[in-house]
Design a protein that fits this description.
74% helix; mainly alpha; N-utilizing Substance Protein B Homolog, Chain A; 8 helices
Length: 180
Amino acid sequence: MQNESVAGKKPAQAASKSIAKRKEFITKTAMRAARTRAREFAVQGLYQHLVGQQSIDEIDEFTRNLQGFSKADSVHFDALFRGCIESSQAYDAMIEPHLDRPWAEISPIEHVIMWMGAYEFQHCLDVPWRVIINEYIEQAKAFGGTDGFKYINGILNKLAPQLRAMEVAADAAAAKELSS
């Protein structure tokens, strides 16, 4: 009789699978961390663009030279930074109906965070809509005003059904099914 684990696998196979799963988890965690860093740098770069009116290339070069940028997902940074700037007017028009005040009264940090959330809803379909909202709540807590994260949460929760209708509806249906 072979020495097998309870799951019916040989101990070496079970250990190998466990190691593979751990490596996969570490890789995904590192990727998430790199994307989170990219978001942090994009917030800073977009803020500079919105407030300082510097050129995109100057901001990009400055940001890439900041400490810690080498650990960020530079592809995600590029997509967020350049994508938000290129579509800023469209994002303003998309977000504005959900605002309870004029843009002039919105913090520049919260302004760019809303752009970024809208961008990711549209272009980062591999990231679940709830994760996007959570990521930008955290960015607002780190960079925004005291209660800015609450405002970001409210606006992004209004944009999600507009930009991720099927995904939001599927989540609502699943939640309804669980509660019944």
